[in-house]
Amino acid sequence: MKKITLMVAAMMTMGMLSLTSCSEKTKDSANETVEEAKEDMDDNVAEAKSDIKEAGDDFEAKVKEDKESLKADIDEAVAKLDKKIEDADAKMEKATDKEKAKWRDRKKELNEEKEDLQASWKDAQNETADKWDAFKAETKEKIAKAKADIRD
User: Fold this and answer.
1) Which residues lie in coiled coils (predicted)?
2) Which of 21, 25, 34, 109 is packed most tightly, with the most Cβ within 10 A?
3) In sequence order, which residues have a C-beta less than 8 Å from that of residue 100 and are 6 or more positions away?
4) Structure pTM?
């Protein structure tokens, strides 16, 4: 963009110099050159705007696709946490008082992770595109932590 602006400025300067010291024919030629430079600049500006809009549209589509993928990952992790919570409930029914306390603590941890993931999804719906990558990385870490806890 700067090159185009510099090129146009140089062409205009050359045209002005030509106009002040040249014949009518040269002046007309210089005017044509200036007009052509203006038209080229307008075309380049329009093309740049189009490219920027297309890049923005592509980025928004990527963010939407990422959100859908993230939602699926969150749903999967929440479902697995629900299963582990059910398992903890079943184990508490058969456990001794000491073991019940252990399973209650474990169930509490699992519920907190589940709530954290669900809150992350609510946040994801409100995240703007410019903060998306950082948010996605943070949420992926939460999912990985939940999956690691599920394996325990």
Assistant:
1) none
2) 34
3) 92
4) 0.54
